[in-house]
Write a structure and sequence with these properties.
Number of domains: 1
Number of helices: 2
Helix content: 10-25%
Shape: globular
Strand content: 25-35%
Amino acid sequence: MALPVLTQHIAQTRLAAFCERRGPPAVRDQVRLELEFAGSEVSIIESRPHFRDTGLWTRLPVARFRFNAASGTWSLDSPDLLHKRGWRPYPAPPSRDLERLIRMSTRIPTASSGASTTANPPP
């Protein structure tokens, strides 16, 4: 099910602002944070040039926000870097406050932040 229009607009605005703050203009040719909307989910994806072919960009999942229309709450997921099985729930209760979960998403270890891709310890 798609996000309600107003909810999608709010999520787009807040998450895009977060991505802008996290990606300084001086390095945008080297790394970008992008949003992907799919149904009731919004994912933050980090893109950067491939180390062997800079004409290609690699994509790394950073965080996923899931909206529950029935309760009006958001949940946060982190990428499963250990098993490479997609996503796992972040240990935080669902919240109506998307900004709170956005702040929490900065604690999720990612491959590009120096976290090991062979282990994904709980945040």
